[in-house]
Amino acid sequence: MLKPFTKKKPPCGGFLQMLYLVMESMQSTPRPFGQEAHPSIFVNKKLQTSLFVFSIIAVLCISGMLITRFWPNSYAANPIQSTPENLLSTEAASELPVIIPAEVPTNTPQVVTPVPAPTQSPLKPETLQTYNRKVMVMIYDPQIPSQGNKKLSESLNWSDPKALPDKMGTWFKNITNGRINFIVNPSVLDISADPMPEKIDGFRYTANDLYNCAKTDSGCHSPDGVDYLKLLNKYQICEKYNNNEFDELWIMGPPYMGLWESHLVGPKGFWYNSTPQLTGSNCNKMLPIMGYSYKSGIENMIHDIGHRTESSLIQIYGGFAKFNDKHWFTPFNMYYSNKRNAAGAVGMPYFGCGSVHNPANTDTEYIYNSTNIVKSACKGAIYFPDLAKMDTLAQNITCTAWGCTELGYYEYWFKNMPQSVGKDENGAAKDWWRYLADPILTEYDSRTTRLSSKTDGNPDYIFDPNY
Fold it and tell me: How are the residues of the chain apportioned to helix, strand and coil, as percentages rounded to the nearest 5?
């Protein structure tokens, strides 16, 4: 802070006093000490010269005083920027203590701390999550004595069950740009040398009987369903799952092994294209189990994942129903709508992407190469819940939108699912791949988003088999 101006004797006072004496002497004659001045005027030339010199000195002194009084900063030893203290009035500043800045050696450089530039919010922008799913694979591909002990898959010229899991994992990784990663455990649990797992009624095929049934689709046992609890207990699957060794189980089996396409075992399970096994297992959380047939390629496996995804979205949004009731305007129904299940629905401006069985432009299941023309908003579904964007992108389509192949349709169907950050007005994630990936996340979110209050694990939507 600058030293404030104070009222005290000016530094040029001596010169002014001398100037006064000179002027006085110019108006009188010299007189002895103590004698009164004579009234006549006497001018001494030496005194004139002295008067001139002292006048100049006096002007300089007065000018310096005025500059110091009215422009004090110009004489500060260390000029500084204006601060609230500097802006005080002279009267207020005179009451402040005098603070003399410490001298800074001229040979010492002063360090100036740069002022950081304004930055953005420290919060990182939200990004779409990546889901890494550790997969345990169980394979049952028995040797067939009647076929020279060839594997069942080899005997009937089916796909190699050991190769399919990696192929499907690669397919999902590619179409989701690495956001859905099914990481297959290389330590496959191969139970092919063991007797075939029991059915729910205790029946068990021999290898030759299984071969004949699978080859001719005749002479097969009913009921067909496998006993999941016995299968899991025998191989201590729940114990490994509880120890976080994997996130889901994929069972590669033949037709008539009695596997559900997708199934949940353990507490809090819900409809997963099959009724959940809520009790009786040693699993301390719900275990997703996929039942894949190696009779064909990855198309059937992807098809099964599609049904699992539909089931998860049913859990979140309360299910699909006939499209003339209140459920039509739920987000899943808009996506699911197609010519088969929504034709004639009141107030529907266009179809969505379709279902796993039915593209938007066909009323017949499993037809993925139909050239029927319908208006679809599938290309805009990825921007949900921006309905205006969906309206803008709605267009007439045929099967050429996905290349008129089954695998092309599945890619089209998964890729156009909503994929945005955050939650919609119902509290559900706007990124539906979250529900494709993890049924535990689905169940968690459904506690606040499900439109139905039913919690018994059974489907609570209206299903018409004629749809």
Answer: 35, 10, 55
Tokens 């299903």: give the residue.
463
Q: Do you find a cis peptide bond into 385, omega within 30 degrees of 0? A: yes
HEC readout, 194-240: CCCCCECCCCCCCHHHHHHHHHHCCCCCCCCCECHHHHHHHCCHHHH
Q: Tens of pLDDT along 178-213?
A: 999 999 998 899 999 999 999 999 999 999 999 999
For the purposes of burial, counting CB atoms within 10 Å of the CB of 15, is it exposed (0-12), middle (13-18) or buried (19 or more)?
middle
Q: Residue 232: which of 277, 168, 292, 270 has the closest Cα?
A: 277
How many whole angstroms separate alpha carbon 413 and alpha carbon 176? 12
CA distance 448 to 384: 19
Q: Which two tokens stand for residue 125?
A: 């922008």
Alpha-carbon radius of gyration of the chain: 46
Helix runs in 318-432, H state only: 331-336, 339-342, 378-381, 387-393, 406-415
CA 276 to chain centre: 31
pTM of the model as a whole:
0.70
Give me 33's structure tokens.
């000490």
What are 206's two structure tokens?
A: 């021999």
Alpha carbons 462 and 363: distance in angstroms, whole number? 19
Q: Roughly how many angstroms between the first and final C-alpha of the chain, as a whole number?
A: 87
Run of H or E including 263: strand 262-265
Spacing of C-alpha 389 from chain mean position: 21
pLDDT single digits (tens) 64-120: 555 545 444 433 344 334 333 333 333 333 333 333 333 333 344 434 334 333 333
